[in-house]
Amino acid sequence: MPKILGESLAAHRQQVRAKVFDAVRSLLYTRGFDGITLSGVASEAGVGRSAIYNHFPDREALLVAFVEHETAEYVTRLHSELASVTDPVEALAMFARMHVEVMIGRHTPPGQQMDAVLSPEAYARMAEHVEPITTQLREILTAGISAGQMAGEDVDALVRMIMAALAAAGEVEPAVRFVLRSTGVRLT
């Protein structure tokens, strides 16, 4: 009988998932998705292979769950940080700063692009989890345009361009300045 972690089965499942996601994070950014196996994740996490299969039927399901988890944590942090910010320019700078810091800390894994190794359904499911992030950006831009602090551009086009720029950024502050300028904010 495997040892139960935590005080309940729910706590046990949560702790196993946390260990598995830590292992996936480590392996994903050192080996890439191509180099991940469920048995390798189990070994890295220090759990039995059957524990992995109890949570995830295959590698693809594991990766999708991992991305869902990481995105949910980021969105929670983003909402918390932005909750007290009322100035749209300050909010946009904070959004850009946080996003670039996350992207730099979690660089693109080695190996093939995710859309090449995942089924279209799994890739679409992963992409859905970006929506709360882009919704937050859309709200910031709309508030900035309404307040006259940002140029009245097509908000959806701005969201796509800003997200692309932030994903490609290698340094935080130049990216923040670029995003602010791209929305018509005059920097002093």
From TrEMBL:
<protein>
    <submittedName>
        <fullName>TetR/AcrR family transcriptional regulator</fullName>
    </submittedName>
</protein>
<dbReference type="InterPro" id="IPR050109">
    <property type="entry name" value="HTH-type_TetR-like_transc_reg"/>
</dbReference>
<dbReference type="InterPro" id="IPR036271">
    <property type="entry name" value="Tet_transcr_reg_TetR-rel_C_sf"/>
</dbReference>
<dbReference type="Pfam" id="PF00440">
    <property type="entry name" value="TetR_N"/>
</dbReference>
<dbReference type="Pfam" id="PF17932">
    <property type="entry name" value="TetR_C_24"/>
</dbReference>
<keyword id="KW-0804">Transcription</keyword>
<keyword id="KW-0238">DNA-binding</keyword>
<dbReference type="InterPro" id="IPR001647">
    <property type="entry name" value="HTH_TetR"/>
</dbReference>
<dbReference type="InterPro" id="IPR041490">
    <property type="entry name" value="KstR2_TetR_C"/>
</dbReference>
<feature type="DNA-binding region" description="H-T-H motif">
    <location>
        <begin position="37"/>
        <end position="56"/>
    </location>
</feature>
<dbReference type="InterPro" id="IPR009057">
    <property type="entry name" value="Homeodomain-like_sf"/>
</dbReference>
<keyword id="KW-0805">Transcription regulation</keyword>
<feature type="domain" description="HTH tetR-type">
    <location>
        <begin position="14"/>
        <end position="74"/>
    </location>
</feature>
